[in-house]
Amino acid sequence: DGGITQSPKYLFRKEGQNVTLSCEQNLNHDAMYWYRQDPGQGLRLIYYSQIVNDFQKGDIAEGYSVSREKKESFPLTVTSAQKNPTAFYLCASSIDSQLTTNEKLFFGSGTQLSVL
Amino acid sequence: DQQVKQNSPSLSVQEGRISILNCDYTNSMFDYFLWYKKYPAEGPTFLISISSIKDKNEDGRFTVFLNKSAKHLSLHIVPSQPGDSAVYFCAARDNDYKLSFGAGTTVTVRA
């Protein structure tokens, strides 16, 4: 089955700790994205990657880091610099980053991150 | 500042009736609009889209209308079914090919 897998479903972070959220896709998509969802707000773009070994900051990149060493994988690290990390995190992919009229984002099922 | 707004956080409709979800945007450079549907504990899934050169797109029970002059789009679901109960996100693509999302509207279809 082709799709996007995010793990874990639930994650708890202690003060001052870095945590990494996993995102793997077997859709052979070039572009991958990380979004954050907070109650009452739309999905906000954290980072995106158009191709392996390349990534760009989204609208709310501060306190986060990513890597794209493999096409299939786009892990997100929430660093201790992110002062309000509690949110629902969604990973997505698309065939390419231009989202032409016949393309769309495919999302994973998300990770809920909470601070202890 | 949110460029895509869904001002109704929730909508309750009787089974068989029409559901109308609204979405407003501020960026006149948006050229492509999408609706996503999300069930609890799942990621959003694509539902329907419309290009800015059109004013209507229909797919089965789902129709999206675009009014560019008013910077407004709407999603109509006719007839509404219990399986339509979900959160619906409106999204718009800018000229950098990035999507901006609304906050979502939770639809509850009553039997």
List keywords for this structure.
heterodimer, A: 116 residues, mainly beta, 11 strands, globular, B: 111 residues, 55% strand
Written description of the protein model:
The complex is a heterodimer of chains A (116) and B (111). Chain A is mostly beta strands and 116 residues long. Chain A is built from no helices and 11 strands. Chain A has strands at residues 4-7, 10-13, 19-25, 31-37, 44-51, 54-57, 64-66, 76-78, 87-94, 106-107, 111-115. The radius of gyration of chain A is 13 Å and the shape is globular. Chain A starts with a strand and ends with a strand. Chain B has 111 residues and is mostly beta strands. Helices cover 0% and strands 55% of the residues of chain B. The model of chain B has no long low-confidence stretch (mean pLDDT 94). Classes of the chains: A mainly beta (116), B mainly beta (111).
From the N-terminal CA to the C-terminal CA of chain A, the straight-line distance is 35 Å
Which chains share the greatest interface?
Answer: A-B, 25 and 26 residues
Give the SSE string of chain A.
EEEEEEEEEEE
Classify the oligomer.
heterodimer
Radius of gyration of chain B: 13 Å
Q: How large is the share of residues in beta strands of chain B? A: over 45%
Low-confidence stretches of chain B: none
Strand-pairing-aware structural class of chain B: mainly beta
Helix content of chain B: under 10%
- Helical stretch tally of chain A: 0
Shape of chain B: globular
Regions with little confidence, pLDDT below 50 for 5+ residues of chain A: none
Structural class of chain A: mainly beta
Distance between the termini of chain B: 38 Å
